[in-house]
Amino acid sequence: MSAPLIVVATLLVLTAVGFYMGRSRAVSTVSGRVRELHSLPGYYGYYVAIWCGLPALFVLGAWLALEPTIIESMLISGLSETARDLTPQRLGLMINDIRNVADGNVSGASAEPAIQAAADRLNSLRQISSIALAVVVLAVAIAGLTYGRHLVAPKLRARNNVEKVVTAVLIACSTVAILTTFGIVMSLIFEAGRFFTKVSPAEFLFGLEWSPQTALREDQVGSSGAFGAIPLLAGTMLISFIAMCVAAPVGLLAAIYMSEYAHPKVRAAVKPMLEILAGVPTVVYGFFAALTVAPLFREWGEAMGLSVASESALAAGLVMGIMIIPFVSSLSDDVISAVPQSMREGSYGLGATRSETIKKVIFPAALPGIVGGLLLAVSRAIGETMIVVMAAGLAANLTANPLQAVTTVTVQIVTLLVGDQEFDSPKTLAAFALGLLLFCMTLVLNVIALHVVNKYREQYE
Amino acid sequence: MNSHPTPSAGAIDAKEAGRRASEAIAASLKGRYAAEKRFRAYGIAAIVFAMLCLATLFVTIIGTGLPAFTQTMIRLEVTLYPQDIDPDGNRDPAVLSRANYRKLIQQSVLDLFPEVTSRRDKRALMALISPGATFDLRREVMDDPSIIGQRVSLLVHASDDADQLEKGHIDADLPESERRLNDKQIGWFERLKERGLVVTRFNTTLFTNGDSRSPELAGIRGALMGSLFTMLVTLALSFPLAVGAALYLEEFAPKNKWTQLIEVNINNLAAVPSIVFGLLGLAVFLNFFGMPRSAPLVGGLVLTLMTLPTIIIASRAALKSVPPSIREAALGVGASKVQTVFHHVLPLALPGMLTGTIIGMAQALGETAPLLMIGMIAFIVDIPGGPLDPATVMPVQIYLWSDLPERAFVERASAAIMVLLGFLVIMNALAVLLRKRFEKKW
What we know:
Order of helices and strands of chain A: HHHHHHHEEHHHHHHHHH
Structural class of chain B: mainly alpha
Number of helices of chain A: 16
CATH architecture of the largest domain in chain B: Orthogonal Bundle
Distance between the termini of chain A: 55 Å
Distance between the termini of chain B: 63 Å
CATH topology of the largest domain in chain A: MetI-like fold
Strand order of the largest sheet of chain B: 2-1-3
Structural class of chain A: mainly alpha
Number of strands of chain B: 3
Oligomer: heterodimer
Shape of chain A: flat
CATH class of the largest domain in chain A: Mainly Alpha
Strand order of the largest sheet of chain A: 1-2
Strand content of chain A: under 5%
Number of helices of chain B: 18
CATH superfamily of the largest domain in chain A: MetI-like
CATH architecture of the largest domain in chain A: Orthogonal Bundle
């Protein structure tokens, strides 16, 4: 990887050289009378630098993206007949072996001679490729530089051209967000589609049993496993419900107190504290839930004669609720503060107390925004991963008892994908189907919530 | 209407009704004021509850994590017999590194307790010393071969059980079978203490080592470096991309369907669960582009996509707060649109953008779930030296350690949390400072 770095560094130096060459050339074409130039001399510098750097950068990117595939196909075509007749999976394993030997991860002494030879060839191919890369990229850069410098003339509209490139780069930046969404949707749909060729969507969406682990061995009875997502959804809902039972009242009341009652000094002290609660990483909450809250609940349960699972939904839900409190309170705070002061004063004028004003005037006025905020909080609870991975169970129990262990969609995604390398079993692909489900659920919630919040915001502006 | 000055029956009725109404109001006032007080108390209770949760969280973590910052060491006198280390006497490093240092350590421990003879007891006694002692001794000898033949004094790590005993986490009153150390071992350790051979010092190992299977040798250096590389990649990509996107959307973009689509898209991306970004990374970066598993580079890419919406939204807010008069003035003296934005608007908006970036980076630093998907969860002893080496990051290390049964690992997880929170506090403080220092009210 150091070779491309050197190439990039050289390219940067060349670009800088291009800048100075362009600028001085522009000044010398008008023999120092800068006013005769169309643009400021610096723009001619940028113009040449762009000609030098941009095409070369494209070549570099394309090369690095295509290099592995090309080298692999060259490697395969050089292998013996018997190797080329292998099934794709065996061939993949063999190529992996060759790579390991070539990288020196496996000592060459223990490798078969054929693999050793192939590894040597791989190394030489890589070396050739990196040298060729350096040569091609630098050639393109120098050609661009010469051409750009050749174009420099007093009449050249350098500034306009440079600004066009700048705008194009900015547009490219803003499409990254679109590409991300596109990538998420495409990868989820593609992998989930492969899953649904093996397991029917109806079984996935309405099946009451989830036990993907049985799919590990092909010869086993019932090797297809059971991929019914209902227990996972039920578990997710149960934990999210418990979390909202904690977060909604606490967050709302805290927000109301802070915006309607609290002295500005109290507000200034409490608000940052709530923000700290929001800034704590979720893994820390998971740690707290798994090692402090869950054992505590178990002890209390035993003292009261209840059987509480050590990975009870209650513990995970409660801690998740604590995590969401600041989220609910800050969103509600915004909404409540947006209710016009005149409505409060009108209510006070009629003799209502503060709490009556809040309950009968402000709360109804702010309700759509609060509902939107709560929906966003629910979507966060559904998508939250680390707390449930650490504190909720793995077994898919279909139960509404908060003292028992349940599992969630996110927990299953993590368990299915962590440490598992094979990519064609329904077990791994199921994670993407679950991911798609999760994405759709949160997307619907978010769209509704954002719509409600925005609509409400417009009302009072 | 009758306008006689004498009160009519109707007026008396009205007066009576008014009196009754005000009586009813007066009677209800007590209840209403009580309701007011109750409501207020609910609000206070909610805030107190939240604060209590925060306090419990911190107290638990600090309480569990503090012991991990000290480490029990045992001072051993080791005689470096030349025939054991370097029989040929030519100080060949290959020979030196292969010598049986474990035997030397064992000998020096047994010298302290001559009465220990049976195999079982010997093994039990050695269980007080960390397996890392062997490596410490080897390093000592490799660094300075001239000490061969001498008797050196070496400070070695106590095993994690002995460490826990010293810290008082092993209850000697429990029945022997329920303890990690038996009565004999506790007795030996007490004798080591009486002779002044047990030293408790600041746990530097925690900050110099990578992960390990032995808790006393496990450190967060590897995870810290992994986090550092991941954050560098994230910062290098997300800041320019986000600033570019924000500049385009706020300053250049025409108001049409396309830009509206981008806007809705960014708002929705900000609320997509982080684990979905992990799935994206797995499917696209690992499986499609064939990038290496467990590499900070891929972690950085995934976190870039995840933090991008946050930084874009903050950057747009910063651009919005720059008053239009600045732009108009620049355009008025003949600057082009691009010149106006880059020479005048961007410098004024930069502090706000940086604040947003720091907050986004803090979020990325604490993120765990997407990194599990791309394999940054492997057990990695070596300290990564670049963004392509397999690595793990701080939050993942915390997750890994808190899953292990040994109490010492849980303590280290708490200590790692304290370090991580320390970094987050510094970053957030920096963001606040930046905002305070450069915030302008136009």
